[in-house]
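ARCHIVE CARD
CATEGORY: sequence design from structure
SOURCE FIELD: tokenized fold
FIELD CONTENT:
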């Protein structure tokens, strides 16, 4: 890995284009990193999205070495809305699903470096509450309900990720609403505090799903998109970059300094709309 890959300056620049305002607008590119499992022994289903503990620590050292400052998703959303200021060189670190290795492996490495994180948990995948669990498509161990308050006490933001991890944009409205609200209610009862952020299962949403998340009381939500977020991003469709098992350290370092990927566009691509239509039709056939 080259020295430049670690030491490059974070990109805050004047960009032209249609940003909803005439002329140029100053934006700050913000990498929102998406992790799943931090394990060298993940199940076949999870393995493509599992980062080894060694690679994870190298990546965190890259974040620290770049001079970046981490913040929660909710803190970033507040900055987008003009309610707070961003730190210099902001980076957001997120985890989806609620794997046990977040507490066992990822959290100690984050705390050792003083880095913030947001964890989006699928309420039906968590262990330790009879009558709540749903079937999972993988065998990897998940967090226990009792661990959530411990994580929150250590400064980890806990967010919702639905109850059973469906494609929300392919569900009828009422079923999507139930998935969102049931997850919210269970998490807020356990934590005793409002849960302010949500992540769409599989990264998929639609305008109607985003409205449901807003109506449920969430103040921000993450998709995927695999592009850089920015201060012009939609707080209910925040773009993230998936850190996979095969993500190179050079690519990761480029993301951290605000490069190596496109910046989010406000327009939904034709391929995204066609893929949603295909998944909806497939869901109708299965029902």
């Amino acid at each position: 890995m080259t020295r430049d890959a670690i030491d490059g300056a974070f990109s805050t620049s004047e960009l032209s284009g249609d940003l909803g305002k005439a002329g140029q607008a100053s934006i700050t590119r913000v990498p929102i990193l998406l992790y799943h499992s931090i394990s060298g022994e993940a199940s076949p289903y999870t393995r493509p999205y599992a980062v080894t503990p060694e690679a994870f620590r190298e990546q965190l050292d890259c974040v620290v070495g770049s001079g970046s400052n981490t913040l929660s998703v909710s803190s970033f959303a507040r900055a987008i809305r003009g309610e707070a200021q961003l730190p210099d060189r902001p980076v957001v670190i997120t985890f989806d699903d609620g794997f046990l290795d977040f507490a066992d492996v990822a959290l100690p490495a984050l705390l050792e470096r003083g880095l913030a994180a947001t964890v989006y948990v699928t309420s039906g995948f968590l262990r330790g509450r009879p009558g709540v669990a749903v079937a999972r498509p993988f065998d990897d161990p998940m967090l226990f309900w009792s661990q959530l308050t411990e994580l929150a006490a250590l400064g980890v933001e806990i967010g919702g990720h639905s109850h059973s991890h469906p494609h929300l944009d392919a569900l009828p409205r009422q079923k999507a609403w139930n998935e969102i609200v049931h997850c919210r209610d269970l998490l807020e009862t356990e934590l005793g505090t409002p849960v302010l952020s949500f992540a769409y299962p599989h990264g998929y949403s639609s305008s109607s799903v985003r409205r449901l998340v807003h109506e449920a009381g969430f103040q921000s939500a993450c998709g995927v998109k695999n592009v850089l977020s920015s201060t012009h991003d939609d707080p209910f469709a925040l773009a993230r970059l998936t850190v996979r098992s095969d993500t190179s350290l050079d690519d990761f370092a480029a993301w951290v300094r605000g490069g190596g990927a496109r910046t989010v566009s406000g327009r939904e691509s034709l391929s995204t709309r066609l893929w949603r239509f295909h998944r909806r039709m497939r869901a109708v056939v299965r029902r």
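CARD ANNOTATION: The two ends are 50 Å apart (CA to CA). Residues 1-24, 269-281, 283-287 have pLDDT under 50 and may be disordered.
SHELF: design records, drawer C
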